[in-house]
Design goal:
The complex is a heterodimer. By secondary structure, chain A is an all-beta fold. Helix content of chain A is about 0%, strand content about 55%. The radius of gyration of chain A is 13 Å and the shape is globular. The chains are: A mainly beta, B mainly beta. The interface of A and B includes residues 50 and 103 of A.
C-alpha cells in the first residue's frame, strides 16, 4: 500500500460527459501528480501540483483540468469525454522540494467511455 | 507524448534465471527510476538512482544509472514466479519544486516454473 488513495476505482460514462477523479496523497506529501496510461500511449505525465499551485505540465488536453485543495487532495476533471479518453488514470504523490521527489503511485481509476 | 526506449518488450524466462532489461533516452535525466506494475495496480517503485554511474541493489535487483545520464539497466537475479509483471523505467527531470517523470515503454516479464 503506497498510502495514496484514489476514487472511484472504476468509472463508466458516455461520450460528451464530464467526470471528476479524486486523489488523496500520502500523509505529509505536498506534491501531487496525474498520469494517464493507455495501451497506445503508455504512461504519460499530465500535470503536477505542489502545495496548491500548478508546477509542471505534460501532455494534458485542454478538456482536462486539475486542482489541489488546501487539504492537499487533488481532483482531475475530464470534460467533453471522447472514446479515446478511456484509460487508467493514476495519481502519485511525493514529499516535494528538498525532502525528496520519489513519487508513490495510487491504485488508479479505470475510466471507460462508451 | 515522449516515451523512453525500453528493451526487451517482453521476456519469457524460467524460474531461477537472471533477467536483464535496459532503457535509453535521447534526453538527459537527473534521476532514473525503475517501477514494477502488477495487473490492475499502480506502479511500485523498485529502485531509484541519483548519480551518473551509480550502481544500486535492492535484494535480487540491481540497477545502474548510465554515465551519460541517458540510459539505465535493471537486472533481476534468480527470478521467481512473483517477479511476473511489467517493469517500467522512468527518467525524472526536476527544476525547483517542478518534477516530471517520463516513462519507458515497459518490459513484460513472464516466469515459468
Amino acid at each position: 500500500d503506497s498510502g495514496v488513495t484514489q476514487t472511484p476505482k472504476h468509472l463508466i460514462t458516455a461520450t460528451g460527459q464530464r467526470v471528476t477523479l479524486r486523489c488523496s496523497p500520502r500523509s505529509g506529501d505536498l506534491s501531487v501528480y496525474w498520469y494517464q496510461q493507455s495501451l497506445d500511449q503508455g504512461l504519460q505525465f499530465l500535470i503536477q501540483y505542489y502545495n496548491g499551485e500548478e508546477r509542471a505540465k505534460g501532455n494534458i488536453l485542454e478538456r482536462f483540468s486539475a486542482q489541489q485543495f488546501p487539504d492537499l487532495h487533488s481532483e482531475l476533471n475530464l470534460s467533453s469525454l471522447e472514446l479515446g479518453d478511456s484509460a487508467l488514470y493514476f495519481c502519485a504523490s511525493s514529499a516535494g522540494g528538498l525532502q525528496g521527489e520519489t513519487q508513490y503511485f495510487g491504485p488508479g481509476t479505470r475510466l471507460l467511455v462508451l | 507524448g515522449q516515451q523512453l526506449n525500453q528493451s526487451p518488450q517482453s521476456m519469457f524466462i524460467q524460474e531461477g534465471e537472471d533477467v536483464s532489461m535496459n532503457c535509453t533516452s535521447s534526453s538527459i535525466f537527473n534521476t532514473w527510476l525503475w517501477y514494477k506494475q502488477d495487473p490492475g495496480e499502480g506502479p511500485v517503485l523498485l529502485i531509484a538512482l541519483y548519480k551518473a554511474g551509480e550502481l544500486t541493489s535492492n535484494g535480487r535487483l540491481t540497477a545502474q544509472f548510465g554515465i551519460t545520464r541517458k540510459d539505465s539497466f535493471l537486472n533481476i537475479s534468480a527470478s521467481i514466479p512473483s517477479d511476473v509483471g511489467i517493469y517500467f523505467c522512468a527518467g525524472q527531470t526536476r527544476t525547483g519544486t517542478a518534477s516530471k517523470l517520463t516513462f519507458g515503454t515497459g518490459t513484460r516479464l513472464q516466469v515459468t516454473l
